[in-house]
Amino acid sequence: MSRAPLIDGLQYANWSEGIFRQMRQGGLDAVHVTITYHETFRETVLNIERWNRWFERFPELILHGRSAADIRLAQETGRTAIFFGAQNPSCIEDDIGLVQILHTLGLRFMQLSYNNQSLLASGCYEAEDTGLTRMGRQVVAEMNRVGLVVDMSHSGDRSTLEAIEHSGRPIAITHANAKSWHPALRNKPDAVLRALGQSGGMLGVSTYPHHLRDGSACTLQDFCDMIARTADITGPQNIGIGSDLCQDQPDSIVEWMRVGRWTKGMDYGEGSAEAPGFPAPVTWHSDNRDLAGFAEGLRKAGLSQPEIDGVMGGNWARFYAESFGPLDARTPIRRAAE
Q1: Distance separating alpha carbons of residues 49 and 105, to the nearest angstrom
Q2: Is 271 exposed, middle or buried (0-12, 13-18, 19+ CB in 10 A)?
Q3: What is the CATH number of the domain that holds 284?
Q4: Residues sharing a CB contact under 8 Å with residue 314, sequence separation 6 or more, in sequence order
Q5: Whole domain around residue 191: which residue ranges?
């Protein structure tokens, strides 16, 4: 690539032409976007149809990313490559065959659980984390085979460690921070981060205020200093940005994210005992035009220029290149201990 790419490893915005133009103004080459939470397979297909219409309407701004080569294409044509992800395995229902079908339709990341116990793994809100289920182990193997990345952002610690061990390809935690820095339920302890880095997996650090020390008042430098300390655990080559930016979303969407259809009540989640809503964003990352400014904070935190280029997008680009294709006889695979 002619320059180091700028990549955000996770967003869930209320997508619009305005946001797509801000991506271009901010110089984003690629963004992993959540296209489904609790939706069924058919509902997820409808969401993909919606994205296809956006690709048709704004071909000068965005393109559908399927491989790492599309990051280069986005750079060369002045666009942003959009990579699809699921924050829950509801989209495969109870059918392992849908893993390959969704990969064919463009899905590149799938979380094994979202806060709660799923058919595949335990979520980080469960009182007991029982690890990967029988189906979970089978689905991880199938995800490895087709090139669908295992994402454990909302999963419990035991489940995450078992996913790292069981997966034959490196996994991702696309949007979370170090629990030693801020004890949010979804942030990860050092033992998990160390295992992630040792296996070649990727951590996307999040700017979502509930995951930050001091919440919305967290400073950019405190955040970047946290990245530098976390890099000592994972290795700097295994960290990128996964902001979890939820730009222009109404507060009502938080109810869908947390509750879906699994309860008649309200899951208040982290950060509040009142009706859920989005916290005020940090002033230094209110939209996609702010992301490039993280580089100066990383420099002040002591990272070298190659390390900064990696965190800002180069590490994700390498991970995409290694992760999105199907396994064949030529594909290196890290065999986990059985």
Answers
A1: 10
A2: middle
A3: 3.20.20.140
A4: 4, 5
A5: 7-323
Q: How many domains does the chain have?
A: 1
pLDDT at 336: 42
192-195 long-range CB contacts below 8 Å, 24 or more apart? 192/157, 192/160, 192/161, 192/164, 193/230, 193/233, 193/234, 194/233, 194/234, 195/161, 195/164, 195/165
Query: What is the Cα–Cα distance from 284 to 291, expressed in whole angstroms?
Result: 8
Q: How far apart are CA 115 and CA 57, in angstroms?
A: 35
201 within some domain:
yes
Residues of the chain with pLDDT under 70: 1-2, 268-276, 329-338
39 is a domain residue: yes
Q: Which amino acid is at 175?
A: H
Put simply, whether the predicted model's pTM sits higher than 0.90 gets the answer yes
Strand, helix or coil for residue 27: coil
CA–CA distance, 70 with 81 (Å, rounded to integer):
6
- Inside any domain, residue 2: no
Integer Cα distance of 328 and 73 in angstroms: 25
CB contact set of 207 (below 8 Å; sequence gap of 6+): 223, 241, 243, 244, 245, 281, 282, 285
Contacts for 220 with CB less than 8 Å, ≥ 6 apart? 282, 284, 285, 293, 294, 297
| Confidence at residue 270, expressed as pLDDT on a 0 to 100 scale | 61
CB-CB contact of 120 with 132 (8 Å) = yes
Would you call 183 exposed, middle or buried from its count of C-beta atoms within 10 A (0-12, 13-18, 19+)?
exposed
> Phi and psi at residue 143, in whole multiples of 5°?
-60, -40
Q: Which amino acid is located at 183 in the chain?
A: P
The rounded Cα 224 to chain-centroid distance in angstroms is 18
Residue 333 belongs to some domain of the structure: no
State the pLDDT at residue 273. 46
> Distance between CA 154 and CA 21 in Å, rounded?
30
